Please model this.
Amino acid sequence: MPAAPSPSLPAPPLDIERAASLVAGLDRDALLWLSGYAAGLAGPGAAPAPPQAVEAASAGSQAAQAPRISIVFGSQTGNARGVAQALADRLSSAGRRVRLLNALDYPLRELATETHLLVVTSTQGDGDPPEDAAGFVEHLAGRRAPALKGLRFAVLGLGDSSYPKFCETARQLDARLAELGGERWLPLAEADLDFQDAASAWSGAVESASSALVDAVATATVTPLRPAVQAAVHDASQPFPAEVLENQRITGRGSDRDVRHIELSLSGSGIAYQPGDSVALRPLNPAPLVEELLTLAALDGDTVVEAGDAALPLRRWLGERLELNRLSRPVLEAAASHAPALATWLGEASRDAVVDLLADHTVVDLLHRWPAPLDAAALVAMLRPLAHRSYSIASAAALVGEEVHLTVAREHWRHGDRDRVGAASGWLAGLEPGAQVPLWLEPNPRFRLPADPGRDIIMVGPGTGVAPFRGFVQAREATGAGGRNWLFFGNRHARTDFLYQLEWQAALRSGALHRLDLAFSRDRPGDGRTYVQHRLAERGAEVFAWLQDGAHFYVCGDATRMARDVEQALLALAARHGGLDAEGAREWLAELRQQGRYARDVY
Model:
């Protein structure tokens, strides 16, 4: 962080703390751009803007030429960001005036004067917006949202049709923008996990629809004033084969959970991660599940099937390329075209019944229940691509060097008389040292330690949600950060499910961890279950005091219940200990989020 100005210099009254927080983490180029922009706002006599700012200003000065198109994205894993960036490049090259903004950076006061708005957003959890779009969505849904009668807009949603609220955030935004008076430039578009073709088609439609907005004088793409994400060394098309160094079960004997601590080598990869980032990997489907499907469908696994740009034996398609554990509505409909009984069921089933089916049936379970005569090519065409899985990094490179550590809960459940395991977690849990895991980095710039190492942090991470906070504490210890660290951890039983217990106790003794609050929900069933949100409420006065003094608050874990309960606990403690009414508490929390002091990594 740049040094604060000397108090002896003549200057108007200024909130130095707020100014410092606004520029925290910006790189040199972004700081130069910002200095030029500020100088321009100051008017004649101010210091000249650097070249980057002049170039952006020259494009902006052509406001009378063609209307500007604002592209706003909300992205949890980077897919929506990538689509939005590609669209901005495409439109800019075609002569449109474009600016590209993360929803977190969008100046909400400008919404009332927008004329052309494009939104690209993912959906996470139970129909929730991605973390960086939460404030944008909340503002639009609230009473302060402006009338948008002069606006033309289009929305693209990225989602996963195996979840009941598919593309829910995009649907809500599309409906609300229209309700506020905006005119749909294009109909709402939705894309499933294999989103590339749908996104490309939508981008082409946007380019055609905007053909009248060509600016013959100047174009520019304005990117967010946030630290640039380093170009990927490895990605989904070229993952790095990380060697397994250690695979250790960290739940105790007698636990019904199998949680693994997995250490992987990044030696020679060029991958540089920060605490808060994730790694992604594309797993292999369990071999017994593949063989069960082949037997059920009476198909030969050696049959070569051509699809797309590949020709592979059916067994490889099922083991390496296609999703067998997660069902989606398109898969159900494709199967129904071969199984009349399933088609009849789908026509009569309630929405809840379909949701339950998607949640607990694999492809094999589906075909057990509704046999369908499928040949090899039809089976491959029916299934969707095997999705990658992401895991929060549970280490700090400053301490572990060229390694990355993961905390993985092996998913397992029983369907009828058949045992099922998660594709990725089951595969990872069974790997021996020396095996390889093809992976790539997923940076998470929304979930970073404070740029000021003197700031306090509060971390809420029950279960495997504690993973990134192991990295946070390691990093703060390794770099000698002066801020205090407070962890709230919860799980079922203290004796068997206290993940990284010895490490946390050692951190308390060394001073690397200053406070630790625990909630083990199943240890005292007679007194009711205690969760992390209850511990937050009990420590409410101190939590509120830390936050008022500038602490950062982090949540990682389950999005559908835990994260919502924690947020309600935060609102309640703000009301109780801050004297705020319900609306004031919401505004207080929104301000924390806007400042980057309330960050969530939930799933």
